[in-house]
Design goal:
The chain folds into two domains: 84 residues; 61 residues, no CATH class. It has 204 residues and is an alpha+beta fold. The strands form two sheets. It has a five-stranded antiparallel beta sheet, with no helix packed on it. A two-stranded antiparallel ribbon has the order 6-7. It has three helices and seven strands; from the N terminus they run βββββαααββ.
């Protein structure tokens, strides 16, 4: 883990993806510049952020985008603490491949030496069921209606917080598509995201 003080994150929102809008960033540090395409960025608005960041990994990424090979050095963020934010000057948003559409590396799983234990399978089934329920077609939620939110989008604690109009802190480690849908729903309901606290606040 590397802690980097006084880093600059230049975040841009890409809107042409079939999976919905997503964010990418250029990270500038005192030892180099890197691309960042982590899920936690999808909660942020466009802007230039000065922050302390914790980098868990620096790696080379290669992919094909619109018929061209792209090679870039990426940084994976474990966390960040925003110090200040400035608006980005208006410019044409570049074409970027959605991280959800990038090919996933093939993982070879070792053959288990003994049958897997049954412990914990119930929780995994519940997670799978919630995700399956979330992916099913459903009517568009009525504005400001918590009851219309599919139970697969938010867990019980978050739903209760929404009903009370309490501040909300989303988990950036969940599936990226789910996090993106959660953030989009909150924006639609008039919530504002505070980048310093990484918390959503309902408009009073």
């Amino acid at each position: 883990m590397i802690r980097v003080d006084d880093a600059t994150l230049r975040i841009k929102k890409i809107r042409q993806s079939r999976n919905g809008a997503f964010c990418i960033a250029d990270l500038t540090t005192n030892f180099g510049e890197f691309k960042v395409k982590d899920p936690l960025l999808d909660q942020f608005e466009e802007g230039e952020y000065r922050a302390t960041v914790w980098v868990s990994e620096i790696y080379l990424s290669q992919y094909i985008s619109f018929g061209k090979g792209v090679t870039e050095i990426r940084a994976r963020l474990h966390d960040l603490q925003v110090v200040s934010q400035d608006r980005l000057p208006a410019d044409r948003t570049p074409t970027e491949l959605d991280p959800l559409d990038e090919p996933k590396p093939v993982q070879v799983q070792a053959k288990p030496s003994e049958p897997p234990k049954e412990q914990g399978r119930g929780a995994a089934k519940n997670v799978d069921k919630r995700w399956d329920d979330f992916m099913k077609p459903r009517p568009a939620p009525a504005p400001e209606s918590v009851e219309a939110v599919d139970e697969g989008l938010f867990d019980a604690d978050l739903l209760e917080a929404i009903e009370r109009a309490d501040p909300l802190k989303l988990d950036p480690t969940v599936d990226r598509a789910l996090l993106r849908s959660q953030a989009a729903w909150l924006r639609k309901q008039g919530y504002d995201f505070d980048p310093k606290l990484q918390t959503w606040f309902a408009k009073r």
